[in-house]
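Example 3.2
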Amino acid sequence: MDAAVEIVDAWRVPKACEFFRSVWPMYVHELSGFDTDFYALDETGRWLPDIVEDWIASVTPPQNLHSAGPELDPAQPFQRAHVITSDGRPVGFVCVGMKPFKYMPDDVDLNIAELFLIHTARGSGTGTRALDLLLRRYSGRWHLRVIHDNARAIRFWRRALPLLRARDLEEAIEDRDVAFRFVTSAIATF
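Structure, written as tokens:
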């Protein structure tokens, strides 16, 4: 029997927020094994830039937006972390940027910025089921980039996106990394 998978809003649910904060350094450490120089370890052992709080804030920091909108905009936050649970236990997260989030192409509505599963949850279908929930929740034109030498992640996205009703799927190289663009139609689940 398949495990029950859910995505939990880390900016709304304190336990999800705590989990996200706790596993973020593990995720960044894993990324450091690939050919990327975005994160660096400082002399105290902290990964910089330290952007974890940006993903769990109830209002996206203005410096992360193309144009600062009203803080009371009902669409806030535009930068969202969702904790992935399997049978009620947190096992990973997925981070989504929404317009006007500035770290995504101008011609898309949404960006999958980060996806992480703990090792024991990988290969179980949990990631695909979590993404199914995510893509049902948000509709529009999507973008995501995968570090060019993260072969496992590239294989995952090449397999998962067609299974998840992604339309107009395109794959291209952007600054050496593999980028995917696609379109989804949401079915409200929240």
